[in-house]
Amino acid sequence: MSLGQTLAPHLPLLRRYSRALAGDQHHGDAYVKATLQAIIAAPDQFPTDVDARLGLYRVFQVIWSSTHDNRHESDSFDAYPDADDDARRVLAEQRLGRIPPLSRQALLLTAMEGFSNADTAYLMGLDDRTVSGLVSEALSEIDSQIKAKVLIIEDEPIIAMDIETIVRDLGHDVTGIAVTRDEAVEQARLHKPGLVLADIQLADDSSGIDAVADILREIEVPVIFITAFPERLLTGERPEPAFLITKPFHRNTVRAAISQALFFFDAETVG
Asked: For residues 112 and 258, is the Cβ–Cβ distance under 8 A?
């Protein structure tokens, strides 16, 4: 099996990580493309002493670190370079400044990507204890982040209750739980949420993707999709979510995704 064939199954999840780190699909995918170009240019330098996914993320981390000053990343952060997005870029810079870049990377690699502290230490060129401290630091900062009104679109009652509990424990307000496309759109119009957590398959066989598309035509709001099949949304063939949680999910995964989503949007605050 060629190196390309070996790496192909891991690319959707790398795109997920890159998008969460960069804040949008365009810039996140650009870093994945640069990673692949680097591997193609020097295949003999690809790590062979670790498994393929770990090696792929390691190459990505080297490229990301080479273009970001991890001590002062907010000074050069440019997830939204267009002139019309200056206000959002400034807001993102302010929020990113609250969580040091290395802490964000450690949190995403462990909580969202499922790497162990030891693997994350390898990817970031650190030791296990430092990674553990970075994750704790990030989680502490998340607890003090902006509080948002959250709309949950989920038709499975148990899963919806779990998500609601996590969201409320983080200090956010749940405006409602919608189980169909029409309910979701109606609740979004009524409450103007600052964040949407959306499943893909809904109760009446309607689509959570369609529900989100309807909502985004009327209001601008960050969206986190929740699905058991993330690869179906990470094909690179159409506009895709920057924030994606895989079922079954863990509390810290939801926590990390919410944190990253709210970094890049001026969410409507509670109260």
From this structure: no
